[in-house]
């Protein structure tokens, strides 16, 4: 994988990998990249609504996605088509893999949601994490995923991600 940086305005592909298989691939546009922290924007990639109960991802939603080459998580700011902030969806993930044409993210199952008003912080997918077997076949990654969720929850409960996202 490349260690280079992207240029603002550059088109890239984001590839989400789970358990060694590509689960999702979508186009995005680079907003910034300082060599450690890459930020891209992408529309919700489906033509259907995904209702989680606490938030709905809908056609027209825009995700501003923050990926780090040295951190075990990704943070996605979610806005409705009209620009209204819905909240932040965060993934425990291995540090971002950077290629000349895009970003590869290996999702580690654990997720966190922070509502736009900051009143709702939810840790998600503990069952999927346990069922993945990662704690037995890759205990280091499992430990890093749990630490990532703890760090993100600390930010979320202390007023949000402004400091983290800069």
TrEMBL record:
Residues 43-160 form the DUF402 domain. Keywords: Hydrolase. Pfam families: DUF402. InterPro entries: DUF402 (IPR007295), FomD-like_sf (IPR035930), Ntdp-like (IPR050212). SUPFAM superfamilies: FomD-like (SSF159234). It comes from the Bacteria. PANTHER family: PTHR39159, UPF0374 PROTEIN YGAC. This is DUF402 domain-containing protein. It comes from Streptomyces sirii.
